[in-house]
Design a protein that fits this description.
Protein name: Malonyl-CoA:ACP transacylase (MAT) domain-containing protein
Organism: Hevea brasiliensis
CATH class of the largest domain: Alpha Beta
InterPro entries: Ac_transferase_dom_sf, Acyl_transferase_dom, Acyl_Trfase/lysoPLipase, Malonyl_CoA-ACP_transAc_FabD, Malonyl_transacylase_ACP-bd, Mitochondrial_malonyltrans
CATH topology of the largest domain: Malonyl-Coenzyme A Acyl Carrier Protein, domain 2
Number of strands: 15
Number of helices: 13
Shape: globular
Largest sheet: 5 strands, parallel
């Protein structure tokens, strides 16, 4: 039993307060009602309990029923102050059945977004994006030029919007809403974590896009301050790649050190660091029996300390953003765990740009926990390829836009 109301962080309420419950629809709907008094010991919910009896036009009363894919969160408002009461470990024992997985930077391609324009809700996302970004995002997605679309400041918003447009494309498909309603866990590769949080209702589409815009700009600026790069090492396990990094680091100064930045899947790990360090990795890879190395077309050494200058800007933007507990588990890239507490989510998102991406652990955990089917939503099929590499029998479908 995971009690939200008997947690040590919870205070005893005053005689008059407002309690808000968030539902678990595709985009959560909040309901509020006043109570003259509440005994905190009288309300306790497990991770699979849900309030019932709420309607779109008001409250019909409530009871508790067990729904395997529902989550309930509470916040207590006293005057103008809202005090969160969500235990960050609320999702700790999640059991995945159906997952949405969202791609990260590198998935962009000329022509993405065009197929979604026949769906009004998807087309509307691009119109909203234009107002926030200050340029025609759909034009860049559909026509390029490629060099501009591939830039960090453009590709990150482009993938975020196109991935959420893919959700709307799916929604229009026969049985699509039923699939969306069935999803009980979500995650995304690096940038895709923001998309996953938006889908899970942690923040609005607009707020998420503003964060992604700033993230891309901050990462580009951090990359511009030092010569750095990323390279994929193919054909080695993570221990061997670490040994390769150690060997490369013996040949370069501190400013050019490298590290594993992205644990994608067995046999495919991305290494980030100074340009000379990356060159040393490339030169030594064959002696470590690597099948090949592939220099990545990114601005710099993402997910390492080279991105430290971006952290303070992200922290400030996240502090000013209204983030709510997600309605379903969203797996973090930093620790491959879901988090429910908005304050913790903000800290993790700020740390994410300097922390190695634990994608291999994330996917392996989903598969081990019995994932029935995954859906990759957005441009490209990188994630589907990773999942299939880890489990040839895995059931994963790509939904493009």
């Amino acid at each position: 039993m995971c009690s939200l109301l008997n947690h040590p962080r919870i205070f005893r309420p005053p005689s008059s307060l407002v309690i808000s419950f968030s539902s678990s629809s595709a985009f959560p709907m909040a309901y509020s009602f006043a109570l003259p008094s509440v005994s905190f010991k009288s309300l306790s919910f497990t991770a699979s309990d849900s309030l019932t009896g709420c309607t779109r036009n008001g409250i019909r009363g409530f009871g508790v029923k067990n729904l395997s894919r529902s989550r309930v969160f509470m916040s207590v408002s006293v005057g103008s102050q809202t005090i969160g009461v969500v235990d960050d470990l609320f999702f700790a024992n999640y059991k995945p059945n159906f997952a949405f997985l969202f791609p990260g930077q590198g998935a962009q391609a000329i022509g993405m977004g065009k197929d979604s324009q026949s769906v009004p809700a998807a087309a509307d996302l691009y119109k909203k994006a234009n107002d926030i970004l200050g340029y025609d995002l759909l034009e860049l997605c559909s026509s390029g030029p490629k060099e501009k679309l591939d830039s960090t400041v453009i590709s990150q918003p482009a993938i975020y919007v196109t991935s959420l447009a893919a959700v709307e494309v799916l929604r229009e498909r026969d049985g699509g809403q039923q699939i969306i309603d069935s999803v009980d866990v979500t995650c995304g590769l690096s940038l895709g974590e923001y998309t996953a949080l938006a889908f899970a209702g942690a923040f609005s589409f607009e707020d998420g896009l503003k964060l992604v815009k700033l993230r891309g700009e901050a990462m580009q600026e951090a990359a511009d301050t030092a010569k750095s790069a990323m390279v994929s090492v193919i054909g080695l396990d993570s221990d061997k790649v670490q040994q390769l990094c150690d060997a490369a680091n013996q040949d370069v100064d501190e400013a050019n050190k490298v590290q594993i930045a992205n644990y994608l899947c067995p046999g495919n790990y991305a290494v980030s660091g100074g340009v000379k360090g990356v060159e040393a990795v490339e030169a030594k890879a064959k002696s470590f029996k690597a099948r090949m190395t592939v220099r990545l077309a990114v601005a710099g050494a993402f997910h390492t300390s080279f991105m430290e200058p971006a952290v303070s800007r992200l922290e400030a933007a996240l502090a000013a953003t209204d983030i709510k507990p997600p309605r379903i588990p969203v797996i973090s890239n930093v620790d491959a765990q879901p988090h429910a507490d908005p304050a913790t989510i903000k800290k993790i998102l700020a740390r994410q740009v300097t922390s190695p991406v634990q994608w291999e652990t994330t996917v392996n955990t989903l598969l081990t926990k019995g994932l029935k089917k995954g859906y990759e939503l957005g441009p490209g099929k990188v994630i589907a390829g990773i999942v299939k590499r880890m489990d040839k029998g895995a059931n994963i479908e790509n939904i493009g836009a």
